[in-house]
Write a structure and sequence with these properties.
about 270 residues, mainly beta, about 50% strand
Length: about 270
């Protein structure tokens, strides 16, 4: 029988949907996310108390009620599935039936004598302007789309059927071409996206966290322990710092199963 458990690290956390989402994208039993870079995890348990007092206001007894449990942590890496769950939706992957519109900032290098240049993607619509791209990354001269089939010193020609760009005549250097294209999962046109809307919120889930550790009296044999939240709700509130060394924070509240006899908030299971 284990009493004192020494924690090595959290191995992974998995969230399983406990119901269907409003938009029908999430079904009960779906794995919402599975993350394995959890750090800075903490579990806070709180409750409300009421004191019974005598006529002089001296406390006689304290009664506790409304117990709450909240788990918060950070994933060391940004996780698309976790972000989608926080947004109340699912991760979308481009395919023939699910086309994703992708923005593209493309740099086209033009040498002396170059004619048509092939763009990396087929634009959804032809851009009306392109810009000279300077060495410091800023934009310079603006060029407009030609109204004829030929370019000039101040205009360019673009054919979205062949994804070809004819640069302004006499121009040598880099051009910045901003456009959108449709990713359909074919011919390397892959894309993944999530959309955080104002009307969708996270569904209830069962969150299971696997923790690696050992018995304090036997540090040779490692044991997997499990922290189980049978009915949890991931918070849609988060503060994501977009940087190389940033983490992906998340928190969830343990909700009691109101129709359950024991009203469990969470449980800790250590199999030997």
């Amino acid at each position: 029988m284990i009493n004192n458990f020494v924690i090595d690290r959290i191995v992974r956390g998995i969230a399983i949907a406990q119901g269907d989402s409003q938009d029908g994208l999430i079904k009960e039993g779906d794995v919402l996310f599975s993350i394995n870079q959890i750090q800075n995890a903490s579990l806070t348990v709180s409750s409300e108390s009421t004191d019974a007092v005598d006529a002089l206001g001296t406390p006689i007894a304290t009664f506790y009620r409304a117990k709450n449990a909240e788990f918060s942590a950070e994933n060391a890496l940004f996780d698309m599935a976790l972000m989608a769950t926080q947004s109340g939706t699912v991760k979308q992957v481009a395919d023939s039936t699910n086309v994703i519109i992708v923005p593209c900032f493309e740099t086209v290098s033009v040498a002396s004598g170059d004619s048509a240049k092939t763009l990396a993607h087929t634009p959804k619509a032809a851009p009306s302007t392109i810009y000279e791209l300077k060495g410091d990354g800023s934009t310079g001269e603006k060029f407009t789309k030609s109204t004829s089939s030929s370019a000039s010193a101040s205009t360019f020609v673009i054919d979205i059927n062949s994804a070809s760009l004819t640069p302004p005549t006499g121009f040598v250097g880099d051009l910045l071409v901003v456009y959108e294209y449709e990713a359909d999962g074919q011919n390397s046109n892959d894309a993944t996206s999530i959309t955080n809307t104002a009307t969708n919120f996270p569904v209830g889930c069962k969150f299971i966290m696997e923790v690696l550790g050992c018995d304090v009296c036997n540090q040779t044999d490692l044991i997997y322990a499990y922290v189980i939240f049978p009915n949890a709700k991931l918070s849609p509130d988060f503060d994501w710092s977009i940087a190389t060394d940033s983490t992906h924070p998340f928190s969830l509240k343990a909700m009691q199963d109101y129709c359950s006899k024991d009203k469990a908030l969470f449980s800790i299971v250590i199999p030997e």
